[in-house]
Amino acid sequence: MPEDKFLKKTRPISTHTQVCAVIGNPVAHSLSPAIHNAAFAALDLDFVYVAFRVENVASALSGMRALENFRGLSITIPHKMEAMKHVDHVEEVDRHIGSINTVISENGNLLGLGTDGPGALKALMDAGVEIAGKQILMIGAGGAARAIAFTLARQGRPAAIFLLDINKPVLNQLAADLAAKTDTPVLSGQMTDAALRDAMAQADIVIHCTPTGMHPREGVSLVPPSLFRPGQAVFDVVYTPLETRMLADARAKGLQVISGVEMFINQAVLQFERFTGVDAPVEVMRMVVMAHLGKSAK
Amino acid sequence: MPEDKFLKKTRPISTHTQVCAVIGNPVAHSLSPAIHNAAFAALDLDFVYVAFRVENVASALSGMRALENFRGLSITIPHKMEAMKHVDHVEEVDRHIGSINTVISENGNLLGLGTDGPGALKALMDAGVEIAGKQILMIGAGGAARAIAFTLARQGRPAAIFLLDINKPVLNQLAADLAAKTDTPVLSGQMTDAALRDAMAQADIVIHCTPTGMHPREGVSLVPPSLFRPGQAVFDVVYTPLETRMLADARAKGLQVISGVEMFINQAVLQFERFTGVDAPVEVMRMVVMAHLGKSAK
C-alpha cells in the first residue's frame, strides 16, 4: 500500500487519542480513512479515523455528542442533508446550501459545515483561475452545484453565474436561492442544445456538476467539443476517471482543465484542518488519493 | 513503550476496521486501549480500540447502535450499572449481579455482559485453586464481590459462601440475592474482629473485595496475619500494588496467593474474545499490563 511509509510512524493509540470517522451508507469504498490516517501519521498527531455505515443519523450524532474524544465526522451520501438537522450550529452559507459534509464536536457541541464548495474554490484558485469579474457556467444544479455556486457567489465575486439543468424545479430553486442570498447576478435556463451553445459562448469558466462521464460510464460528455472557446477554464466535479471525456476534449482544444480530484483532495484538506487545527500535509493526502484512484482505474 | 514491538505490525485502518472502546468517567488512566490494541496487533486483526469519556450513557449506547463497525465496549466506573439499562439483552447472571462491564453490538443489537466474575474464576482456576466443595470467605459485599460471588456460586459449586461487610444493607442484599438465585449455601455477618476470626477459621479460600490496601494507601490489610491458616488460598481483587499487604502476609505464612491483576488481565482477555471471536493472546496482554503497572509503581 502506498501509505505504508506513513503508517510506520503511527502513534500508539492512547486514552487521549481523538477519533474521527466518515459516516454514510455505503462507506465501504470511502477513501477517507486512508487519506486522513496517512495525514495524521505524517504529522504525528494523536488522532485516528475510522468508517461507520450509518442508517440512523440522529442516533449517530447523538452518540458523537456523548462520546468525548470523538472529534470530527465526514458526512457522505445519503446523509449530507439529514445530518444538518441534528447538529447544534450550522454556518450561514451551509444553511443556504442545504447540506453539510463535516461535523466538528467542541465539548459535545456539534458544529456542521461544508467543505465541498470551499474545496472547489481552492481548486480553482490553486490552478490560478481568476473568478472575480468572470462569467461562470454551471452545468447541473444539484447538491454539488449548490455548494460550489454559493461558495463562488459569496467568496469569488464573479460577474454572473449561469445555471443549466434538465430538471426545472431543481434549477429554479437554486437560482432563486442564489438570487435571494447572494449579490451575484444569476441567470438560469433549462438545458437544451441551444441554451448550452449560447451559454458556452459567454462563459469564462465552465463547471460541470452532473455525474455524466463518471466511471463506469466514461467516455461521454454533455459539451460538444466545438463549443469550447479559447481562454475558457473547464472544471469537472467528476474524478473517476481523473480526466473525464469533457476535460480531455477541453484539453485537446488547449484550454485549462481542473479535475474534480482537486476538489476532492481539498475538501479532505479543509476537513483535516478543522479536525486538527493545523495545516494539512496536502502532498501526503494527494499521494494517497492518487495511489488509490490510479489503482482502481486499472 | 513496551507495546511498541506489537505496534509495528499494526494494520492500516480501513473502512472495514471494527471499533472497540472503553467508556467511563474518567478514562484517562485506563490501560484498556494499550492492552487491546497490542492484542489486535499481535493477531493482525482489523480492529482498533479507543477511549471515550462519557457522561450520557444512554446517548453513547444509542450511538454505538447506529454506528456500524462499532463492535464492542468496555464499561468502567461509574457506568457499569447504568449501561445495563440501555442494552437490548443482558445475560441472566449479569442481571442478578446488577452490572455489566462489556457491551457487544451484533448488527445494532446490543448485548450486555460481565467478565469481572468470570475473570476472577479463571484466575482461581488458572492458579489451580479447587472451588468445588470449598468454603469461600468474601470480605466485602460491593460490586466486585457481587460479580465474583454470583459467578463462583453458579459455576464453581463451592460448599458455602460466607460474606462479611461493614455495610449491613449491602451485605444483606447480596446474601438475599445469592440465596434466591443460586443453590449455594450463603452465610453472612457484619464485619467485626470476632466475625472475621470465626470466618477465617473455616475458610478454604479468602477473597478480598474492598479497596483496602490499594495505592496510594498501601500497607494496610483487613486480615491480621495471625488469622491465616495452612492450606488457605488468598485472592485480593486489589492490583495496585501487584502484591498487597494482605497477600504479602499470606505469602509469608506459606499460603497460595493470587493477585487481582490476574482477574484484571482475565476480564480483558474474556472481553477480547467476545469482541473478536478468537482466542486472546494472553501473554501479550499480560506483558502490556505488567509493563504499565510496573512503570506506574515506580
Question: How many structural units, i.e. domains of chain A?
Answer: 2
Helix content of chain A: 40-55%
Q: How far from one another are the termini of chain A? A: 15 Å
Quaternary organization: homodimer
Describe this structure in a few short sentences.
The structure is a homodimer of 298-residue chains. Chain A is α/β, with parallel strands linked by helices and 298 residues long.
How does this structure look, described?
The structure is a homodimer of 298-residue chains. Chain A is of the alpha/beta class and 298 residues long. Chain A folds into 2 domains: 2-114, Rossmann fold (3-Layer(aba) Sandwich); 117-262, Rossmann fold (3-Layer(aba) Sandwich), CATH 3.40.50.720. Chain A is 40% helix and 20% strand. Chain A has a 6-stranded mixed beta sheet with strand order 2-1-3-5-6-4, with helices on both faces. In chain A, strand 1 (18-24), helix 2 (32-42) and strand 2 form a beta-alpha-beta unit. The first copy, chain A, is globular, with a radius of gyration of 19 Å. Chain A starts with a helix and ends with a helix. The model of chain A is unreliable at 1-8 (pLDDT under 50).
